[in-house]
């Protein structure tokens, strides 16, 4: 039986804080560094491209409430559609 997936979106500092303070051994962790949010053609697969097309077909179901740029909003939606995580964790830390 595979472990449920957790998608962590944030910086490396957020990732360290979350994994240090939470017991996540029962989960498969997928980390997405927001500082490196760009299209990498080596990692780009057919599933991601199909989810981009699928997003444009059903885009009226999604609302950009946090005023993200269009590129970042589409990228995050397609990342969630592609990975299908059970839980999504984000964290905003102020220094």
Overview of the molecule:
The structure is a single chain. With 95 residues, the protein is α/β, with parallel strands linked by helices. Helix content is 38%, strand content 17%. Strands 2-1-3 form a three-stranded parallel beta sheet, with helices on one face.
Q: How helical, in percent, are the residues? A: 25-40%
Structural class: alpha/beta
How many distinct helices?
3
How would you characterize the largest beta sheet? 3 strands, parallel
**Mean pLDDT, as a whole number?**
77
Please write the string of helix (H) and strand (E) elements: EHEHHE
- Distance separating the two termini: 40 Å
Portion in strands: 15-25%
Shape: globular
What is the rounded Rg? 14 Å
In which order are the strands of the major sheet placed? 2-1-3
Key traits:
single chain, 95 residues, alpha/beta, three-stranded parallel β-sheet, 3 helices
Write the layout of secondary structure elements.
Elements: E1 5-10, H1 12-21, E2 28-33, H2 46-57, H3 70-83, E3 87-90
Parallel strand pairs: 1-2, 1-3
Helix pairs in contact: 2-3
């Amino acid at each position: 039986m595979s472990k449920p997936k957790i998608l962590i979106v944030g910086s490396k500092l957020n990732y360290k804080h979350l994994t240090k303070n939470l017991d996540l051994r029962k989960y498969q962790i997928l980390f997405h560094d927001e500082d490196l949010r760009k299209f990498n053609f080596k990692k780009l697969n057919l599933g991601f491209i199909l989810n981009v097309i699928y997003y444009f077909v059903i885009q009226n179901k999604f609302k950009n409430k946090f005023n993200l740029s269009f590129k970042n909003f589409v990228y995050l939606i397609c990342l969630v559609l592609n990975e299908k995580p059970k839980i999504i964790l984000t964290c905003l830390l102020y220094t």
